[in-house]
Description:
Layout lengths: L1 H29 L7 E6 L5 E5 L10 E5 L4 E11 L5 E6 L9 E6 L14 E6 L4 E7 L8 E6 L10 H6 L6 E5 L22 H13 L4 E7 L1 H12 L8 E5 L5 H11 L4 H11 L2 H7 L18 E6 L7 H9 L4 E6 L7 H4 L1 H24 L1
Amino acid sequence: MLALIIIVIAVVVLAAAYAAAVVFLARAVVFPQRARPTKIVSVDDDGQSVVLSSNPLTRFDGILGLLYDNETKLTVLTPGTKVAGDGSTVTRQLAERAPLEGGTEGRASGNVFTAANVTGTEPVDVAIDTDHATQPAWLYAGVGTNSSTWVLHVHGMLAGRDSALRSVRALVGTGYTSLVISYRGDREAAGEGRAPSTLGQTEWRDLDAAIAYARSQRAARIVVVGWSLGATVALEETVHGPQGAAIDALVLVSPVVSWARTIRYGMTRQRVPRWLAASAIGLLSSRLGARLLGLPVTLHLTDTLPEPSVPTLVIHSEGDLTTPFSATVAFASASERVAVVQFPPAPHAMEWNANPDRFSATVADWIAAHLRQIGALREK
């Protein structure tokens, strides 16, 4: 009898541990945590170089932003890294002198611009009314005949509008109008608290409202640039959005084209057993999971890849350790509408940072070419 009791207790304990692990993993997906801050170890006397804690981002040999002073100020790290012999720190050069202080914390990031300096002119603050809240956006007015082409820039997870300023920069000189939007869950709307991400499955509604706004301002052509989760948002809009048919082309950067594949990829990298990752995906896809995690909808997560309805450019790198490049390859292989431009190995969503000139030329040339094709078809 005692042996039976012990077995029952052991089974109950194991079941509880399994359930707790599954909930923990599922929660980590929809309530992601930011990486640890970057330690600013020391600054040289002339303020031209800085020693930072070593991590995959600070070791990345590309242009980077460095937030400092409680992440209220931004400076720029130029390409080129010098890793300490023990691998614990890296030395980076600053693009210009900045009042950094050793022994403080900062945060390395992909964005190197502010809303005011990305194009040389201040943006207009725009309020986009959605069914969720009033979402703020930055509007950079275009010039000339191309100004009626609106490019909507959609940022990724754990990032704000500023992370999408790189694609705004890429289009400087084209004459296009740029609208950098926010969406539910990014905490940019006034009074918005922390909420779980629905992985693009409700956020598309805010892109839909932004497209409606653009059309109300006489936008003749609409292109959406989606970064990471922003790519999911863009793809969801083309399928579900009332305004989705107004999109002429998509540009997707380090895109999440399948959350099931991305979740499994990330958990495999964290050495989570495949069966446990599958359980977490199953919970996320269930009504029970929605209730436990406070999700407003039951998520639909499968390995099935979307089929874009418009010409789509994907910019991605095999160095991405967040979103599997293999999913991008499969996505492109399944559709003639998708073109992939592979960049040198770079961290997630850092293709611009690896080669800004190539990124800008690729995006600007591709958009121009496809809009000309669309125009020619419409004239027939």
